[in-house]
Design brief:
Layout (H helix, E strand, L loop, with lengths): L50 E5 L6 E2 L5 E2 L6 H11 L5 E6 L4 H15 L2 E6 L4 H16 L6 H12 L3 E6 L12 H8 L5 E7 L3 E5 L5 E2 L16 E6 L6 H6 L8 E2 L7 H4 L5 E7 L2 H8 L5 E3 L6 E3 L21 H4 L2
Parallel strand pairs: 1-4, 4-5, 10-11
Antiparallel strand pairs: 2-3, 6-7, 6-12, 7-8, 8-9, 10-12, 13-14
């Protein structure tokens, strides 16, 4: 995978996707890569600290009171808020990506950390699976170090929509208990039949399903997976998370390159979520992430959060880091937003 999370590039020794990347505006502001225009400066005032993108289910980064680590919601209840505070200490701004089913719990913990420790924590629900969450964390990190100069709060607001434009497929040996729009009664029944088979279940950009028999023949013969509608000039990269080799037939049906995809570098595993020790996720994204995101963004109109000075931009109404919500229209000249 061209853009991958290499442990050698991290600033600490723990095997995780966490990095310390600053998002301070560059003194020499580059033209927008799409329009060619110079974006307006970000708000003045105290610049936010480094931003860290983390995944709630990453077992390598969340510390408990004994010094061990584990997924955030697997920690003892008394350690969860402290773990959030530890990773957002100082002026650090933490972006926590979690499964939608865990969002209410993680958001409540983040609220407690804000109140008790003055932490600045944003929580973003991203579905589909661990590989998609890793991909979205990677996209956020790449945009931090790009010269796109967009407020991080605006990017956070758009991450769920961006995730729905990426290709995500999971390879499973059975879909007997899977609740998915593309899984039919016949698929459930086929899961109980003897013999080896692999189901390729697609979550995005549209739900779909194909399966391979023991000889690797794809069925149904006339059904394909849905390829993301990205500009071909942006390129495409494919990452895999899990132990299975991805059958060439699956890549062909998705319209993806058939050369061997790269493995995502992370300590996370999809097996627990899918109930299959060999569950393997495939995610495909544009190679030019900055160009892809820039194509979808309107001209930026930024203002500082009234409470914590985080740069904001439409369509953000509530600061994702301090949860302060300001009334009035979404305009940077609103006195309600800029008055002290």
């Amino acid at each position: 995978m061209t853009h991958h999370l290499d442990p050698a590039a991290r600033t600490d020794s723990r095997p995780s996707i966490r990095t310390h990347l600053t998002a301070h505006p560059s003194p020499a502001r580059a033209p927008d890569p799409v329009s060619g225009s110079i974006p307006p400066p970000l708000p003045s005032g105290r610049p936010p600290g480094p931003y860290d993108y983390v995944v709630a289910s990453d077992p390598a980064i969340w510390p408990d009171s004994t010094g061990s680590t584990g997924p955030l919601l697997a920690l003892p209840v008394v350690d969860r808020v402290a773990a959030l505070a530890a990773l957002s200490a100082g002026d650090r701004r933490l972006v926590v990506i979690c499964d939608p089913a865990e969002y209410a719990t993680v958001a409540a913990l983040a609220g407690q950390a804000r109140g008790l420790y003055r932490s600045r924590i944003a929580v973003v629900p991203i579905g589909s699976g661990a590989a998609m969450q890793v991909a979205i964390a990677l996209i956020g990190q790449v945009l931090l170090t790009s010269r796109l100069n967009r407020p991080v709060a605006e990017v956070i607001e758009r991450l769920p929509a961006l995730s729905r434009q990426l290709l995500h497929v999971v390879l499973l040996r059975s879909v007997a208990r899977l609740d998915h729009p593309a899984v039919t009664v016949s698929h459930h029944m086929r899961s109980y039949l003897p013999g080896r088979r692999v189901f390729a279940v697609q979550s995005s950009p549209e739900p779909n399903l194909i399966w391979l028999n023991g000889q690797g023949v794809v069925r149904p013969a006339n059904v394909g997976l849905v390829r993301p509608d990205h500009d071909p000039r942006l390129g495409i990269v494919v990452g895999v998370l899990g132990p299975r080799e991805v059958p060439v037939g699956v890549l062909e049906r998705a319209g993806l390159p058939t050369d061997a995809p790269s493995r995502l570098v992370t300590t996370m595993s999809p097996s627990r979520q899918w109930g299959d020790p060999e569950a393997t996720e495939v995610v495909a994204m544009p190679q030019d992430l900055v160009g892809w995101v820039a194509d979808q963004l309107p001209p930026v109109e930024a203002w500082p959060c009234h409470w914590c000075d985080e740069p904001l931009a439409a369509p953000v109404r509530t600061c994702p880091f301090c949860a302060d919500t300001l009334p009035g229209p979404l305009t940077s000249t609103s006195p309600d937003r800029l008055s002290g």
